[in-house]
Amino acid sequence: MPPMEPTLNNPFRRSVVKGLLGTTSFWMASGNARWAEALAAEAAQPYRPVFFDAAEYQFLESACERLFPADHNGPGARALGVAEFLDRQMQTPYARGENWYMSGPFEQGPANLGYQLPFIPKDLYRKGIAGVEHYARQQYGKGFVALSAMQQDEILTALEGGSVQLGDIPGRVFFEQLRTNTLEGAFADPLYGGNRGLGGWVMLGFPGARADFMDWVNQEGASYPIGPVSISGETA
Amino acid sequence: MVKHVDAIIVGAGWAGSIMAKELTEAGLSVVMLERGPERTTPVEGAYPDSIDELRGAIRKRLFQNLSQSTVTIRNTMDQTALPYRQLAAFLPGEGVGGAGLHWSGVHFRVAPEDLRLRSAVIERYGEKFIPEGMNLQDYGVTYDELEPFFDKAEKVFGTSGEAYRVQGKIVGDGNVFSPDRSDNFPLPAMKDTFSASVFRDAAKNAGYHPYALPAANASRQYTNTYGCQMGPCNFCGYCSGYDCYLYSKASPNVNILPVLRQDPGFSLIADAHVLRVDLDSTKTKATGVTYLDTKTRKEISLSADLVILGAFQFNNVHLMLVSGIGKPYDPVSNTGTVGRNFVYQTITSSRVWLPPSTYTNQFVGAGGAGVAIDDFNSMNFDHGPLGFVGGSPVWVNQAGVKPIAAALGAGGGGTPRWGSAYKDSLVNTYKHSLGIDAHGSNMAYRDVYLDLDPTWKDAYGQPLLRMTFTWKDNDIRMNQYVVSKIEPIARAMGATKMNLVHLNAGQPFDTRTYQTTHLGGGAIMGDNPQTSAINRYLQSWDVSNVFVIGSNAFPQGMGYNPTGMVAALAYWAAHHIRATYLKSPGPMVKA
C-alpha cells in the first residue's frame, strides 16, 4: 500500500465500505450500526481537499478538464476525479520530492539535460497555480476559472509552447507537471481517488487488475471481451 | 575487531547473486551487501499490489532512489554536467534483486562476432573502416569459451526459446544467425502475441528470418538446476518495472536466493551502502570494504580475502574510482582505464497502426516475449557500402502496455498532447497499434566516458559519477539504416499509418525520456591493461583480489539485451576463480 494519511477520505476504504454495505456479513460483523452509518454517510460526501485551498482546487478542476475533456471518447478529468487524485498525491513522498535528487547547486543548462529547478512537486503546484492566475488576470482581466474554454485553452497552449514564465517557474515546466499528473489521475487505479467508476480504463479497453491473459495471447485481433476490475474489486 | 569473511560481494542483483552462489558452493564464507531494502516475492511481489501501475513503474518503486545518489550528465567535454535529478532515460534498480527484479526478461546469448568486433571489422573491411576516435575493442573471450556458461545460465533462469542449431544439427525454427548451442533451451518458446505474429508473417514474407525472442519468462512450470520453482507465465503484462507475482519471470529473488539464503556460509545484508573498497598501502590488494548501515547511519568495515563488485554498471565504476582501484581514464592524454569506453544502446521505437477492426490488446504481453529479426544485427549484413559499424535487431516485443504509460507517451511529434483530439489518438493508438523497436548497438569513443563530478555529491558526501555521453554519427546512421528497413515490413503488416522513429544527425542524448537501462562499459574487459580495466576473467589488472562483474565489462554496447551476457560472464569468472584463483590467489593474466 502507498503511504496515505489515515483519514476517512481514503478512497480505498470508501470503496471497501461501499462494496461491503450490502452484505449481511458486514452488518453482522460490524456490531456498531452508528459507525457503519457514519462511514456510509462519509462515502457519499464530496472530497474535501487537504493540500490545495478552494481556489486552487477549482483551478485544477477547470484546467485538468481542458487537458482531458469529457467528449465522445468518454469522461473528462472532472468526472474522473482527477483533482481529488492530485490533492491526495500532494500528501505522498512523491510530492515532497523524496525520490528526486534535490541537492544544490541548482544550475540551469540545456533542456535535454533535464529538470534543474530547486522545487519539489508541491512547490511547482503552489507557485504554478498562482502564476497562471496572475497571467490570466494580466491577459484577460479574470481568473482562469472564470474564462471561457477557448481562453483557457489559449493559456494552456501558451504554457506548453514555452513562451510564458510563471514567476520562478517556466510555464512549460508547470504545464508538463500538470499534464503528467492529470493523465496519472485519469488512468491510475481508483484506489488513488481518480479514474472514478473505472471510466479511464473503459475508454481504453484496459481490463485493469485482471492480469491474466493465458487464453488471450493471440485471438487474431479480436477485442478483449471482459471489462475492467480495480484492485479493490470494483467493476465498471 | 573487524569481522573477516572469505568473500564480500557488493550488490544483490544477478551478478552478485550468481557469484555468491558459486563461491558458497566452493565452500567460502560470503557476505553480500545490498544498499537497498530486502525484497521477496510473497511480500512486495504479491498480487494485486504488485500490478499497481502508479505505485510500480510510475512512482518507480523498484528503482534507484536518486535522492541518495545519482549521476551528473553532459553531452560534451566542454559542458558543465548537471545532475540526473529525476529518473527518466534509464532506470537502475535498488534493493535485493537489483535491476534483475524489475527487468523484462529478454535473455539473449551474444552474437559471436560482437565479442571480437574490432578483429572482425578489420578482417572484413580493413582498419581504415574504423572511424577516428572510435575505441573499437575485442572482449578477449570467445563464444566457444563462454558457451557452457550461457547454457548454465539458461538452465538457472528457466529460459524459454526456440533453438536453431544444437551440436551442429539444425533442430528448429530459431534464429538462423545464432551460434551453435550445446543444448536446447530448457523451455519451449513463449507464444507469439497477436502483434508479434503479424510481424513474424510480414518479416518472413519480406525474406527476413524471424525468431521467437529468448525469454526468461517461463512458458511452462519449471524447476531450475538449484531446485527453485517457476510458474507458467500468463502474459499479465507486468514484467518491465515490476516484480512478477507469478514466479514466472526469472530474478535473483526467485531463481537463486531461495536456495542461497539457506546456505550457512552465506549472509545477505540489506540497507548496506558500500562507501569504498579498502585497499592496503600498496593499492594492489583489497583488505575489505566499508559500508554505511543506512538504518543506523553507522559505518562498518568488513575484512575479506576477495571482493566482488556486482553492483549496477556505473556503480561498479563509481566504486572503483572512489576507492582508487586502477587508473582513472583521461580522454585528453588517452591514458588510464577506469571510466573508459562508457557505452549505451541506440534504441528507437516506431509505431504501426492496424485497421480499426483489429485490436492489438497491448495490455497482453510478457517482458521477454516477442518476435525479432537479426538480419541487420552485428556482422550479419554487409557494412562495406554503408560505412558504419554495428547493427540492431528489430522486433515486436509487446511487454504489456499499461494505461498511464500509454497516455503519457501519446501525442507529440506535431500531434496534440492534450484535449479532445489527443484523446481520439490515445484511444485509437492504444486499441489498434503496436510498437516495433530497433534495439541497436552503440560504439565506444575517446570522448565518451565516466569520471567523478567536481561539484555535486551524494547523500554520503562522495562525488557523483559524471557521464559524458552523446550520440555519434556512426550510431545515428546505423539506426537510420535499420529503421528504414522497418517500413516495408510495416506495409506488409497492413499498416494504415506508421510513425517511424529514428535518431537525427547531430541529435544530442536527451536525459528526459526513457530509452533503455542497458548501460555498459566504463570498466571493460580486454587483453591489454593499457586499454582495459579488467582482464578476461573480469579481474582488476591493478588489484588482483577484486573482480568486477557486470555490463561494465562490455567494450561496446551490443544490439542484444545485456543480462544474458552478464550472467554468462559471471559464471565464467566464477568458474575460473574456483578452478584457478582460489588455489593460487594473484593475477590470473600476466599484465
UniProtKB/TrEMBL annotation, chain A:
Name of the protein this chain belongs to: Gluconate 2-dehydrogenase
Annotated organism of origin: Gluconobacter albidus
Taxonomy of the source species: Bacteria, Pseudomonadati, Pseudomonadota, Alphaproteobacteria, Acetobacterales
UniProtKB/TrEMBL annotation, chain B:
Domain Glucose-methanol-choline oxidoreductase N-terminal: 141-344
Keywords assigned by UniProt, alphabetized: FAD, Flavoprotein, Oxidoreductase
Residue ranges constituting the Glucose-methanol-choline oxidoreductase C-terminal domain according to the UniProt record: 451-570
SUPFAM superfamilies in UniProt: FAD-linked reductases, C-terminal domain, FAD/NAD(P)-binding domain
Domain FAD-binding: 5-40
A GO term, aspect molecular function: FAD binding
Family: Belongs to the GMC oxidoreductase family.
Listed name of the protein: GMC family oxidoreductase
